[in-house]
Amino acid sequence: MIEINNKIDFEINYKEIEKRKERIRKIWQYKQVDHIPIGIYVIDNKERFTRKEIEIEKEKNLRFDFNSIKKSLNLLPDDYIPFLKPEVGCTTIPTILGSKVSYTEQFENYSTVKEPIVYKIEDLEKLNIPQDKNEIIKEGLMPANLEKIYYYKTVAKGLIDMTGIDIGGVLCGSVDIMDSNLFYMSLITEKERILNYLEKLSDLYIKVQEILTGEIGGLNKMMNIDWDTSWYPEGHKGYLSDDPCANFGVSTFETFSKPFNKKIYDRFGYGGFHNCGPHPCASAYLQYDEKDASKKVKAINCSLQFTYKELDKFISVFSGSETILYFLFEEEFYDSKKAIELYKELVDIGIKYNVICIPSYALDTSSHSDDDIRDIYKEFIKISKEYALSLKLK
Length: 394
Prior knowledge:
By secondary structure, the protein is of the alpha/beta class. The protein contains 16 helices and eight strands. The protein has helices at about 15-30, 50-55, 60-75, 90-95, 120-125, 135, 140-155, 170-175, 180-190, 190-215, 250-255, 260-270, 305, 310-315, 335-355, 370-390; strands spanning about 40-45, 100, 110-115, 240, 270-275, 300-305, 325-330, 355-365. The chain has one domain: Alpha-Beta Barrel (TIM Barrel), CATH 3.20.20. A six-stranded parallel β-sheet has the order 1-8-7-6-5-4.
C-alpha cells in the first residue's frame, strides 16, 4: 500500500472567497448582483480511487478532495468556494441502530445498507435508539466519522470549510432501517407507533448532528450541516433530506415529516431541504410556523432529472417566496451541450416566475479537458449575467 501524506500545496485567496460568499448572501435576500452564482466544481480523481476506498480510507478521501480543490481553483473563477467533503456514505443513523453497510467499488455509487433490520412493527418498538452522546459516539459509523473529521481538521488546519456528513432526515433513515413496504404501510395503519418512533429518532438525529458539527468546529466552519456542497449563509446552515416525500401527499408530509424536520431546523437554522423528486409536497416545503415568518426554509435542492417533467409547475410554486432553488446536474445524464441548454431552460422559467435557480454541476476531469471545463463555465456565466439583469431583485 502506498503511503499518502496529505498537505495543502495550493493557495487560496481568502479575500476573493469572501467576495463569493457575499454574493451568495445577497442572492439569498434577492438583492442585486452582477450574476447569479454558478455551482460548478471540478472532480479530479486522477488516482482512480474507488468509492469504497474514499469512504473507508480517510487519507484517500482527503487526497481526492485536495486534488479536486486544486483543479477547481485553477479553472473556475467567480463563484467556486473550496470545500472538504468527508464521505462515509448515507447510512450513519441506520448503523447506529445496528444496520450493516454494503460498499461498492464503482466511483459513481455510494454505500447503502445491506438490508433492513425491521420487518415487523413490533421490532421497531424494540429498537435501542441511544440518546446519550457518550454511547452514540461508539456506535456504527460514528467512530469513523469522528476519526475522519479529526484527520481533516489536523491536516487542513481549519482553513477550508467542510460539508457535513450525509445524515439525511428521519424518513430517509427510516426507509433504510425498515422494510420499505412496512414503512409506507405503517404511515397509514400504525400512525401513533410511527410518530412515537420518529420522536425518538429525531432526537437521535439532533444529537448526532451536534456531535459532528461540534467536532468540525461549529456551523460557520461548514458549507451546511449535511452533504450538500453549496455554501449556505450564516444562520441558515440547517439542512435535511426527505426523499420519501416523493411518494406521498401533503397531508402525510405535514404529519410525518414536518414536525421532525422542524426540530432540526429550529436547532441548526432554516436553510436547505432536499428531495430528488418528484414533488407532490412542494407547496408545503417552506413554511414551518404560520405565526413566525422566520421559520421558513430558504433553499430547495433537487435532481433536475427527477424534477424535469414538472419543472414549470415546480418552479411556479416558489414565485414570490424569495426561495433559492438548487438543481443537481448529474453528469452521467447530460453532456455539457445538453447541460447548457437545460440551464437556459431553467433560467427562462426562473425569469418567468422571478425565482433564482442555481445549477450544481460537477465536471469530472476523466470526461473533460481543462479547456472544456473553462469553456463550459464561460457559457454558464454568460447566461447567468443575463439572468441577473432579467430578474426583479432589490
